[in-house]
Please model this.
Amino acid sequence: MRESKQLLKEWNTQLKEELKTIRGELKQARDQIQEQNQEISDKHEECKRAKEESGKRVGEVESQLDRMGREKRRNKVVMMGFEMETGEQKQIIEKVTKFLEEKAKIESKVKSAYKICRGSLCSGIRK
Model:
């Protein structure tokens, strides 16, 4: 009987030690999982911020493109009915500048001009 009591005490002690070891390992595993969850959460937040930032940048670029498009259209003038023998840019600029000064009484600095040829108006005209 003493031997069985002694044997039970030894098993009990062994089981307590194993339980203590298991609890320690579980705590370590829990801590590692919490660290990994925190890292994942941090990376997720970082990705969200990067996405928001890139969305803002895309919005800024779109807005800038819109402004540039409006500016470009705002500075364009289409004039029709000119008789032109040539499609040389220098001569077109001279003719448009002369027209604006003489007929429209507008002083201007024409940066570029080009001929647009449409349908039947283009027959025999070189672009």
